Amino acid sequence: MNKNENGTDRRDFLQSGLLGTAAAGLAITSTSHVTAQTVPDAAEPEVTNEVDVLVVGGGSAGHVAAIQAGRAGAKTLIVERNSQLGGTTTTGGVAFPGLFDAWGKQVIAGIGWELVKESVELDGGQLPNFARVPQRHWENQVHVNQFLYAILAEEKCAQAGVEIAYYEFPQAVTKTDDGWQVDCVGFGTKRRVRCKQIIDCTGGAEVVGMLGFPRLREEERQPGSYLFMLGGERAIGRKQLHRLYVHGADSTNSRTATEANMTGRKSVLARVRKEKKRLMHLQPETGFRESYRIQGETLISVNDYTSGRVFDDAISYAFYPVDLHTKTGVRPKPLKPGKVPTIPLSALIPKGSRNIIVAGRCVSSDRLANSGLRVQASCMGMGQAAGVAATLAAKSGTTPLEVPLTEIHALLREHGQIVPGKA
After folding, report:
1. Cβ neighbour number for residue 252 with a 10 Å cutoff
2. CB–CB of 372/401 below 8 Å?
3. Which residues, in sequence order, are bridge partners of residue 350?
4. The domain containing residue 257 runs over which residues?
5. Does 238 share its domain with 201?
6. In angstroms, rounded to a whole number, what is the distance separating the alpha carbons of residues 97 and 125?
7. CA max distance for the chain
8. What is the pLDDT of residues 53-87, one digit of tens each?
9. Dihedral of the alpha carbons of 207, 209, 212, 216, in degrees to the nearest 10
10. Hey, is 187 helix, strand or coil?
11. Is residue 12 part of a domain?
């Protein structure tokens, strides 16, 4: 036992120190304990997976796609390069996803809404009244606890039998006789995945780009937003955070994303020093609005979007103003009363491809249509549809675009989604 000069042992010294701290009115944080399960072959750097469906990207579309595929009976793996699911809602901090309703009724439901609703209820929050048509669209966006949402998404993946691989991303994709071989890399891990179907939910259709299929992107992109909170109280799940435009934000690769993040943090630090307020909250990365979109079998035009065109192969609804952010701000252009856009299955299929489908903001669309399509609720609807199409294709040995639409619609309805229909 170690004694100090006065003959007091270290344990007595620490205890007296803690008592003194408590007496001074400072709280002592207790520590609870849990034990992580042993990872099989954790010391081995190389891992092999044989799955039906590989989902790349765990954001707004990806985690919903994976849960749907798992629930529908597909052996599913989701690869996410960050540390949690949820994407824009969680890592990006835009924890007010929308819009799930249009003109007095709900138009997007299913797995994404299930997660949002449970997050709000577990957090003791309030859901908007969708029967009321708001004067401004954002009034019906749902505030969720971003931290709670992320761990609920993990729980639902586990319940659906979905395996999650964080901190990993594909490095090579090779066509095989019955699907794909995808080689992924994470720190200390090389993972080879053999799958029948890929769902690319990377935001910028990065797997599609790796395969050489055409993608669309403008020279100028919408600014990203870095979310934070100065002063006041952290009202997680109750109100929006402060937003900082990061002009030129580019999510093309690790270098451009690094530059966007560091630019945002530098500006936040400057504001802390200038305003002399406490930094109460800081998101880990920039929320990116715009990057690559696929050139799909169908391209959704802004006229298709604003007219509420019901495509013959529509698989989900979307609802949001045309919402193009610029250096001078944003002036949303609301949709006309009664108009509710739809998303066709063929807009999720890279032109000329087989055994790969996308979901999320990389949907095949022109820039103005995409400015409305890119929001979370619409991406969740796309993700669920992609999960269904990929699962049915894997089971029948075909490609998503060749799965009968009636089968896709039936399975979507079975899992709670609202499917567009002709008037």
Report:
1. 15
2. no
3. 296
4. 224-282
5. no
6. 14
7. 88
8. 999 999 999 999 999 999 999 999 999 999 999 99
9. 140
10. coil
11. no
pLDDT one-digit tens code per residue, 365-377? 999 999 999 999 9
Q: Where are the beta strands (DSSP E) in 62-144?
A: 76-80, 101-102, 105-106
Overall average pLDDT of the 382-407 stretch: 98
Cα distances (Å, whole numbers) of residue 145 to 70, 158, 280: 25, 20, 16
CA trace torsion 195, 201, 204, 210 (10° rounding): 0
Bridge partners (DSSP) of residue 56 are 79, 200
Measured CA to CA, the distance from residue 363 to residue 371 in angstroms comes to 11
Pairing of strands 105-106, 356-358: unpaired
Please state whether beta strands 179-186 and 189-200 pair in parallel, antiparallel, or not at all (unpaired). antiparallel
Verdict on whether the full-model pTM lies above 0.90: yes
Cis bond before residue 99 (omega within 30° of 0): yes
What whole-number distance in Å separates Cα of residue 96 and Cα of residue 149?
A: 11
Could you list the beta-strand ranges (E) of 266-320: 279-282, 293-294, 314-317
Residue 316 lies in a domain: yes
Domain final residue, candidates 241, 263, 282: 282
Domain count, the chain: 2
